[in-house]
Specification:
The complex is a heterodimer of chains A (250) and B (354). Chain A is built from ten helices and ten strands. Chain A is of the alpha/beta class. Chain A has two domains: 29-56 and 70-81 and 165-250, Rossmann fold (3-Layer(aba) Sandwich), CATH 3.40.50.300; 91-163, no CATH class. Chain A has a six-stranded mixed beta sheet, with helices on both faces. In chain A, helix 3 packs parallel to helix 6 and helix 5 (121-133) packs antiparallel against helix 6. Chain A starts with a strand and ends with a helix. Chain B is mainly α. In chain B, the strands form two sheets. In chain B, strands 1-4 form a two-stranded antiparallel sheet. A two-stranded antiparallel sheet of chain B has the order 2-3. In chain B, helix 3 (24-49) runs parallel beside helix 9 and helix 10 (205-221) crosses helix 11 (227-253). Chain B is globular, with a radius of gyration of 22 Å. The two termini of chain B are 38 Å apart. Classes of the chains: A alpha/beta (250), B mainly alpha (354). Chain A binds chain B through residues 51, 53, 73-75, 78-79, 83-84, 86, 90-95, 99, 102-104, 109-111, 114-115, 117, 159, 163, and chain B through 201, 204-206, 208-209, 211-212, 215-216, 218-219, 221-226, 229-230, 233. Bound molecules: adenosine-5'-triphosphate and magnesium ion. Residues 14, 17, 19, 37, 39-45 of chain A line the site of adenosine-5'-triphosphate.
Chain lengths: 250, 354
């Protein structure tokens, strides 16, 4: 199978500090890939590079084996079908849930097109369906800033899905969620992966165990190893840098 | 909602009927204030709705005014040399002045010159993601450059005195009260149309993108929008509105000088919007009219303390009315509605108990 995204030898430095020291990562269509690793491993930075927020100083990020997106701007990367959910919910607090979804519709984003845009029936149906999917049908007219934390997270996932992505990047989506919310989010992610690849950073081992197939472990700006959760747990190195440390911390 | 619309209609109709109940002197003042209101409307769009604080709108106002003033000067000279050029020893009309003898060119330029300057400046800054205080500082630097330039090139611009002593506009005598009334009415119509246009823009999906840019420019990028083009557009639009205001101003007041486009007037423009309420288009218009009415009242009666009053006003607004008068009224209404609802249910509960 052709990979949908390949990072090759990606390096990032922040004023001399090498946050990524040559990362290789390959993601396939319809795959849910978990990215784990201790604090400061560079997981968020890697997502930042893929979505264009941070520019890599070296290496390539190749989309569908043909396009190097390393130098593209954020909105251009979104147009290709790569969307990003940030760790802190970044919805528009002053707009309603409905308006947030409206802005997120897959649409022509040029000024002229948006100025004349009307909500057509098809769009409304898509938005209704999304409201149902993320469980916010009753909150549609509420200001997004007034939602509960978990609901904000879902709204943001919904906003990313409205864009009909090919690759969805999620940074710690279940942080701060209750047990049931976590479970529902896991289900949602599984459902999403029917049509798109998901690259997801997560600290919660329970969650990773329940919902992962392939896991990539990062440490100090490098990929340490890859495999299923079971394989990873057997790995000495991983136990040393990550799981071991975690257990000793507990 | 509909009540609001009715209110807007009544407001503009009342303005339109101004000549019926205002003295010539008051009407002239109000006409001037409405020009300022047009500037305020543009500032409200970029500041209140998009989060761009420009401290340099005096330049766009001034450029618009100068473009029209050049035409008026040439018309007053009747094919000869404008008076101030003669005084400074110029022998022929400078080449760049010539096209301004055509009124259509001059009026078009009064819109396009500010709009283009803003588009270029906006593109360079917004594309490089310069925003917030840094953008405000750049906008001030532009003011300094233009004021210095206009003062220095006396033989082209009339220097510190600016351009004045006009006689006619398209053949109509500017001294005639009827012509002044007509200009006033045109100003009201243009302000009303601009208000309607701005309201339509803010209510459209593009308007929601603008407020999204204000609340989180970087987040907007991850929805696939390029904030640069939206910001350049709205900034340029607001510059065009300021230029249009400049034209209407110079026609009614009969004078434009570098002092009117300087740093202090530019800051005052922002103050009007802050006082009225920067999140409300009608607030911006009211703010311009109210602050300038207060200004003319105070400077008629107590010329010395006007600037102190202005400073106090600014402090009061920033400290106590962060969303201006309209914002204060709206939050008052909201809290009254809430307390009334509470009161209502409490009453109902009482009656059930008793
Ligand atoms: N903008 C920045 N400037 C300087 N250093 C940064 C910047 N962003 C991240 N870093 C550093 O790069 C390293 C990797 O950070 P990153 O946020 O990618 O880690 P992470 O794996 O997401 O960690 P966490 O699990 O805590 O979220 C850290 O040491 C961090 O301090
Ligand atoms: Mg992180």
């Amino acid at each position: 199978m052709q990979p949908i995204l390949s990072c090759r030898d990606v390096k990032v430095s922040f004023n001399g500090f090498q946050a990524l020291q040559g990362v290789d990562l390959t993601v396939y269509p319809q795959e849910v890939r978990f990215l784990i690793g201790p604090n400061g491993a560079g997981k968020t930075t890697l997502l930042d590079v893929i979505c264009g927020k941070t520019k890599a100083s070296d290496g390539e990020v190749v989309y569908r084996e043909t396009e190097n997106i390393r130098r593209l701007q954020e909105h251009q990367i979104v147009h290709l079908g790569i969307t990003r959910k940030f760790q802190a919910p970044s919805i528009f607090a002053n707009l309603t849930v409905w308006e947030n979804l409206e802005l997120s519709l897959k649409q022509k984003r040029s000024l002229w097109a948006v100025m004349r845009a009307r909500l057509i029936k098809e769009d409304k149906e898509k938005m209704e369906a999304m409201l149902g999917r993320i469980g916010l049908a009753h909150q549609r007219h509420q200001q997004a800033g007034m939602l509960a934390h978990g609901q904000k997270q879902w709204l943001e996932i919904g906003m990313q899905l409205m864009q009909e992505p090919e690759i969805l990047l999620l940074d710690e989506p279940i942080a701060g969620m209750s047990e049931t919310e976590r479970y529902k989010t896991g289900e949602l992610i599984h459902e999403i992966s029917q049509n798109c690849s998901v690259l997801i950073v997560e600290h919660d081992m329970e969650f990773v165990r329940n919902f992962s197939k392939q896991v990539t472990v990062m440490h100090e700006g490098r990929v340490l190893c890859e495999g299923t959760m079971a394989e990873i747990q057997q790995n000495e190195q991983v136990a040393e840098v990550y799981l071991g440390r975690r257990e000793s911390a507990c | 909602m509909d009540k609001k619309k009715l209110g807007y209609w009544l407001f503009f109709i009342a303005l339109f009927l101004g000549p019926l109940y205002l003295t010539e002197f008051r009407l002239a003042l109000l006409g001037k204030f409405l020009c300022f209101a047009l500037v305020a409307l543009g500032i409200c769009l970029i500041w209140g709705y998009t989060g761009i604080l420009s401290l340099g709108h005096g330049v766009y106002f001034g450029l618009g005014a100068y473009c029209t003033a050049m035409y008026l000067k040439l018309e007053a000279a009747g094919g000869g040399l404008p008076d101030f050029m003669e005084w400074s020893g110029v022998t022929g009309i400078p080449a760049f002045w010539r096209p301004f003898a055509n009124p259509a060119f001059a009026l078009g330029a009064s819109l396009l010159v500010p709009a283009l300057l803003a588009a270029v400046l906006g593109f360079l800054t917004f594309k490089n993601r310069i925003k917030g205080v840094y953008f405000s500082l750049i906008s001030q630097a532009v003011v300094v450059v233009f004021v210095t330039l206009f003062v220095a090139k006396q033989d082209w611009t009339g220097g510190t005195n600016g351009l004045t002593n006009f006689t006619t506009f398209l053949g109509f005598s500017l001294a005639s009260p009827l012509v002044q009334i007509a200009l006033y009415l045109i100003t009201v119509l243009i302000l009303g149309a601009s208000f309607a246009l701005a309201a339509a823009l803010t209510k459209s999906r593009a308007g929601r993108v603008l407020s999204a840019v204000r609340d989180g420019e970087n987040r907007v990028r991850f929805l696939g929008f390029n904030p640069t083009s939206y910001k350049v557009f709205v900034y340029s639009l607001s510059a065009a509105l300021a230029g249009l205001a400049g034209t209407l101003f110079v026609l009614q007041v009969g004078l434009i000088s570098p002092a009117m486009m300087g740093i202090i007037p530019s800051i005052e423009m922002v103050l009007w919007v802050a006082v009225g309420g920067r999140h409300s288009l009608i607030g911006a218009i009211l703010g311009a009219v109210i602050v300038n009415s207060a200004k003319s009242f105070f400077s008629e009666s107590y010329p010395d303390i006007w600037s102190i009053f202005l400073g106090l006003l600014f402090i009061i607004v920033v400290m106590f009315l962060p969303n201006g008068l309209v914002g204060a009224i709206e939050s008052w209404k909201k809290s009254r509605k809430k307390s009334r609802q509470k009161g209502g249910t409490a009453d109902a509960a009482d009656s059930v108990v008793s």
